[in-house]
Amino acid sequence: MEKIEIGIIGGSGFYEIEGLKEIKEIKIETPFGKPSDSYFTGELEGKRVAFLSRHGRGHRILPSEINFRANIYGFKMLGVERIISASAVGSMKENIHPMDVVIVDQFIDRTFRRINTFFGNGIAGHISFAHPICPELSKHLINSCKSLGISFHPKGTYICIEGPAFSTKAESLLYRSWGVDVIGMTNVTEAKLAREAGICYATIALVTDYDCWHEEEEPVTVEMVLNYLRKNTENAKKIIKETIKNLPKERTECTCASALKYAVITDRNMITDELKEKLKYILPEE
């Protein structure tokens, strides 16, 4: 299997980026089941990339139904070292407007129905997650936004809710009182699993609405979200292309690759061969 350098998670149209060459569709079966869809690989700005539609082609999969473990492990099997994620979010701040981009740097996890670790069932591991976003990858996303003249915010806290319903007004006001910047339903789970897999992860949050807290704006609807998302997706494609062009070959400014160096606390002699085989792409060498 060819080695892919960079993974991109977004909607099914994200692989329609100008300049992408040699597009191939690759189906992968992981030890954790099937990913959301096939991976579309190609060459962009001289680097090998793989795109994955988070919700499947045609947007068939709810946030709680996404096989996050298979999605991230599939990227790891392809050799991916960096993942750029893009997703729609609601704004929780007056100064973060629809059509803005937020380069998220922190998360609050309010999910409760999904599996967010590769560990368990005989192996225990605890990653450091104080700083959940790769600083090097984030820096390049910020630089791309600056060079492209896109309206953006260089940091922000993303609260991840379970969904699929949007927040009640009481919930939205509660989250605002916590000081969060944007709200979504997917990214924190991806970030946790990417960290366990030793993959750099950063996200482009595409603001589509003001959630339902804003007194002067209409409550968020699917129609509103999709309308702004279509417009914002073009900006995201430009950011991704510019970032990939300027990313250095080697990862030298982060420790994402060594996230599991001291994380696994289970006695190696107690880990079964079956488990070692299942996790062979992410377990550090003995």
Summarize the SSE layout with pairings.
Blueprint: E1 6-10, E2 21-26, E3 39-44, E4 47-53, H1 68-77, E5 82-91, E6 101-103, E7 106-110, H2 135-148, E8 152-153, E9 157-161, H3 169-177, E10 182-184, H4 187-196, E11 200-209, H5 222-246, H6 273-278
Helix pairs in contact: 1-4, 2-5
Describe the overall structure.
This protein is α/β, with parallel strands linked by helices and 286 residues long. It has a single domain (6-278), classed as Nucleoside phosphorylase domain (Rossmann fold, 3-Layer(aba) Sandwich). Helices cover 26% and strands 22% of the residues. It has six helices and eleven strands. The protein has helices at residues 68-77, 135-148, 169-177, 187-196, 222-246, 273-278, and strands at 6-10, 21-26, 39-44, 47-53, 82-91, 101-103, 106-110, 152-153, 157-161, 182-184, 200-209. Strands 1, 2, 3, 4, 5, 6, 7, 8, 9, 10 and 11 form an eleven-stranded mixed beta sheet that branches. Helix 3 (169-177) links the parallel strand 9 and strand 10 (182-184). The longest helix has 25 residues, at 222-246. It is globular, with a radius of gyration of 18 Å. The model has no long low-confidence stretch (mean pLDDT 93).
Labels describing this entry:
286 residues; alpha/beta; Rossmann fold; 11-stranded mixed β-sheet; 6 helices; 11 strands; globular
Task: Quickly describe the structure.
The chain has six helices and eleven strands.
Report the uncertain regions.
none
How far is the N terminus from the C terminus?
25 Å
Which percent band covers the strand fraction? 15-25%
Order of helices and strands: EEEEHEEEHEEHEHEHH
Kindly identify the CATH topology: Rossmann fold
